[in-house]
Amino acid sequence: MTTGVFALFVAVVLVVGGLYGLAVLVRLARTATDVRPFLSGHEPSEHAVSRYHVRWYTVTVIFLAFDMEMVFMYPWTLVVAEEGLTAVVEMFVFLGILFAGVVYAWREGALRWT
Fold this sequence. Notes:
Blueprint: H1 2-26, H2 55-83, H3 85-108
């Protein structure tokens, strides 16, 4: 058992190392302008990993609420006939949690246009 795991580990290391080496061989020459951030030639006004304003967190909650709803609803529609009532109850619990996120974002003012 352990020799198989060790062989798999060695194979993974060799494949990853080989792909990295291949990428180094076929990459184009890099110049000083290639490694700069793309801002249409302008200097960046802040660091790339600077903190986001807190208002974007509520936008993220809204995005997750609406996007994750669709991501999980489609597969659920395919298996709900097989699973029965438990699948329906689980989906409504899931939608309730997402609705709580939307209510929170609404209360924080993320849905206001101003």
